[in-house]
Design brief:
The chain has 22 helices and ten strands. The strands form two sheets. The chain has a six-stranded mixed β-sheet with strand order 6-7-8-3-9-10. The radius of gyration is 35 Å and the shape is elongated. Helix 2 packs antiparallel against helix 10. It folds into two domains: about 20-330, Up-down Bundle (ABC transporter transmembrane region fold); about 350-595, 3-Layer(aba) Sandwich (Rossmann fold), CATH 3.40.50. With about 600 residues, the chain is an alpha/beta fold. Strand 4 and strand 5 (about 410) form a beta hairpin. The structure holds adenosine-5'-triphosphate (ATP). Adenosine-5'-triphosphate binds near residues 124, 380, 383, 384 and 387. GO terms for molecular function: ABC-type oligopeptide transporter activity; ATP binding; ATP hydrolysis activity. This is ABC transporter.
């Protein structure tokens, strides 16, 4: 079983060694419906072909004096056969559509669950638009592959085999030309599929690129507009769109060379000639000729639709490959279901930790320890690895060497859910979901009653501005919280952290967007929040740094000094330099307060 950070109980498991096996397993999950499709389509072709034979008999009877009652009986038989054909088609199509819709939904769910279980490092490498294309367009291609794609292929096969069986029954010699046609048909289809395959696969990839480019531009539309780069982005998109179009043109060219349609005309003509010869030799009757030519005519439809059917199936297989590539990709972390589960007390220790995102090393030999309930401020120049260090605590990433221990137990030995549910992190760039404010605050504690949500908002100094909105806590916020200011977003994130009541709190520059007037109140709220829980603080706010129990000074990914404020002012040049720089960026009034 591949590693993953999230899974659901009683998950249906599918073989994933190849797209075809994966598709068959998905369809086989609904084997009963698949059997209904097979039986109904078979029934449809048998009744439809049988009706042609009876029509031939009736036509022959019209040549000679006929018995009206026999004619009526045969006419009713034809009607019954055609009605039965209609019912078979109806049930078969219904069952096929049901399989297709379920397959699409199951594949979406499987892909989505797998994406939730991938590590942060995996998501860092992905282009969101391409993933979206796989989750939306590629999954819908799976449904089209079943209906009408596969059902049409199945119909094509039956639509060739059943009429040929009837012809064999009438006069086996008359199979000679149609069988030659079938042999050429199989060869032509194989060539067609082989040629089309790479074009379809490239089409799907190009669609992913097109979508990724679109997503990136729309997400960064503010930057595009501010830099007046609309023209450049338009040309980039047009280049992708034209690449996509060209692949369709290429597909059209391959389809235009699909030879079975031409072969069908030749087969029809030659079979008629063959029938005439046999009739001339008195070896078949007029009724036989009518029935045979009518049956041969049935081959036209399967020959024609197989062109689209194979394209649809190939597109589906290419899409399944793209979906499967995501699902199968190895991820770095595991949810460790059997891991340690306990309430975190809050002791944190880094022991000779080494870390880098890819090959590039970021943290070198980092060691420190924090007692439960202490506040650690991490300071250092930009890019020195402060955020990277905090990301190792909740296992957003794993260390490459050394260990991070919480309450004396390596974080990799903790049950991942237990660990993360007790650690709250507030980022500088707060992410909010396009839901109500209340739902955003309660994101980590979805069952929290409204009173607790309000209490948390009050503690984060967010209640007043939330109450000023017409719909208060039920105000829907735009995607990523765009309708709120940076400071408001950060206060909602603080409220979210207060509500989930974590044992370890990580504040990564989380008050940077809060103005000085609000800051005092928030400082108090944060200090309140820090009480009784271990807090890691990345901040440029001297007022917060000064009161930390431990200050870690990072430089180039190494801890160059550690201790409290007074100690560091006395002993560390690095700290003095950072402190002086932070101090000089303060307004005069705050400098006076700090002095
Ligand atoms: N997801 C990532 N993949 C690869 N490299 C990254 C990633 N995130 C950060 N880095 C690199 O890691 C280094 C440390 O980044 P980090 O964000 O930890 O620094 P920081 O000290 O928190 O900086 P700042 O104060 O500017 O937030 C930087 O050189 C950065 O370019």
């Amino acid at each position: 079983m591949a590693k993953r950070e999230f899974s659901v109980e009683h998950e249906y498991s599918y073989p994933r060694s190849s797209p075809i096996r994966w598709i068959i397993a998905h369809v086989w999950r609904y084997w009963f419906l698949a059997c209904v499709v097979l039986i109904c389509f078979l029934g449809s072709w048998v009744t439809y072909s049988q009706a042609r034979v009876v029509i031939g008999d009736v036509a022959a009877m019209l040549e000679v004096p006929f018995d009206g009652s026999v004619l009526l009986r045969l006419s009713l038989i034809i009607l019954a056969l055609l009605v039965a054909d209609g019912f078979c088609l109806w049930f078969g199509s219904l069952a096929g559509e049901t399989i297709a819709a379920r397959f699409e939904a199951d594949a979406r769910e499987e892909l989505y669950t797998s994406l939730l279980g991938k590590s942060q490092a995996y998501h860092d490498r992905q282009r969101v638009g391409d993933l979206m294309a796989r989750a939306t367009d590629d999954t819908s291609q799976l449904a089209s592959m079943i209906v009408p794609g596969s059902t049409m292929i199945f119909e094509s096969i039956l639509g060739i085999v059943v009429p040929l069986a009837y012809i064999a029954f009438i006069k086996i010699e008359l199979l000679l030309i149609p069988l030659g046609f079938v042999a050429c048909y199989i060869i032509a289809v194989r060539r067609y599929v082989r040629r089309l395959n790479p074009v379809i696969a490239e089409q799907r990839e190009q669609f992913g690129k097109l979508n990724a480019g679109l997503e990136e531009t729309i997400s960064g539309i503010e930057v595009v507009k501010a830099s007046a780069r609309e023209g450049f982005e338009r040309l980039k998109y047009r280049r992708h769109a034209r690449g996509f179009r060209d692949l369709f043109v290429q597909q059209g060219r391959i389809e235009a060379r699909y030879i079975p349609l031409l072969l069908f005309g030749i087969t029809f003509g030659l079979t008629f000639l063959h029938s005439m010869i046999l009739f001339d030799q008195s070896r078949i009757t007029i009724a036989d000729i009518i029935a045979v030519m009518s049956l041969i005519g049935l081959l036209r439809f399967p020959t024609f639709i197989s062109l689209f059917a194979f394209t649809l199936v190939q597109t589906g297989v290419a899409s399944a490959g793209r979906i499967l590539n995501v699902i199968k990709e190895e991820t770095e972390l595991d949810e460790n279901l059997q891991g340690h589960q306990a309430t975190i007390k809050g002791e944190l220790r880094f022991d000779h930790v080494q870390f880098g995102y890819e090959a590039q090393p970021i943290l070198h030999d980092v060691s420190f320890s924090v007692k439960p309930g202490q506040t650690v401020a991490i300071v250092g120049q930009t890019g020195s690895g402060k955020s990277a260090l905090t990301q190792l605590v909740n296992r957003t990433y794993d260390v490459q060497a050394g260990s991070v221990l919480i309450d004396g137990i390596d974080v990799s030995e903790w049950n991942l859910n237990t660990l993360r549910s007790q650690i709250s992190k507030i980022e500088q760039d707060v992410f909010l979901f396009s839901r109500t404010i209340g739902e955003n605050i309660a994101f980590g504690a979805p069952n929290a009653p409204r009173e607790q949500i309000i209490e948390a908002a009050k503690a984060a100094q967010a209640h007043d501005f939330i109450s000023s909105f017409v719909h208060g806590y039920d105000t829907e916020i735009g995607e990523r919280g765009v309708t709120l200011s940076g400071g408001q977003r950060q206060r909602i994130a603080l409220a979210r952290a207060f509500l989930s009541n974590p044992r370890i709190l990580i504040l990564d520059d989380s008050t940077s967007a809060i103005d000085s007037a609000t800051e005092d109140q928030i400082q108090r709220a944060i200090r309140e929040a820090q009480r009784g829980r271990t807090t890691l603080l990345i901040t440029h706010r001297l007022s917060q740094i000064r009161w930390a129990d431990v200050i870690l000074v990072l430089d180039g990914g190494r801890i160059v000094a550690a201790g409290d404020h007074e100690h560091l002012l006395r002993t560390s040049n690095h700290y003095r330099r950072i402190f002086a720089r932070y101090e000089s960026s303060l307004p005069p009034i705050e400098q006076a307060v700090l002095a």
